[in-house]
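Hi U.,

Before I forget, here's the chain from the pilot set. I'm dumping it here mostly so it's searchable later in email.
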Amino acid sequence: MDMRVEARMVTVPGGRVTLSDRRTRRSWPVDLAPFRLAATPVTQGWYAEVTGGRPGTARGDRLPVEGVSWWDAVRFCDALSVGEGLTPVYGAHDDVTAVEPDPAADGYRLPTEAEWEHACRAGTTGARYGSLDEIAWHRGNSGERLHEVGGRLPNAWGLYDMLGNVWEWCWDVYDAEVYGSYRVLRGGGWFDERWSCRASVRRRSHPTFRIDDVGFRVARSAPR
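Structure:
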């Protein structure tokens, strides 16, 4: 894979996606405008270039960054925006406890949960966009470790590692009435069984949570 693909943004067409929650047995449709999404999860090399930090325990510039909280991901988005001369979406700083996105900002952000699933599916309707062993690193083939991004086949829209390798933070609150500020994670990781590596699977965690199978990828809204 081209070394530059990790920083490439893919244009995702608009459309409708139906989200579902296994716990509540609820489903709901979401209409989406076109947006842009990074071809891979943010790598350790990219994260270090933007922030100067190398969180997590594994080492390798092409490995997905892990050991990052939702807040770390939000701050990375703003730092990346500033570095490229764009308007930060969040304006997040160390002393804030809440943040609201600026819809007029042209910088980087986390994808919404609906955007993530729509992009993952890439026009497909099944549990996965291809044969799992060909598209994802999971517990059955990962050797129980992280792998460099782009090592499996992409989906039809050119997005790599949407399933497996690391779970990915999304913008959304999971269920405020039950779980408070917990945020949504999607995609499954290198230590997960096959069942968890599906387009519809939802996971949740506190926005300060850090662990070695959670990372993120960045999005941008399409110009109006």
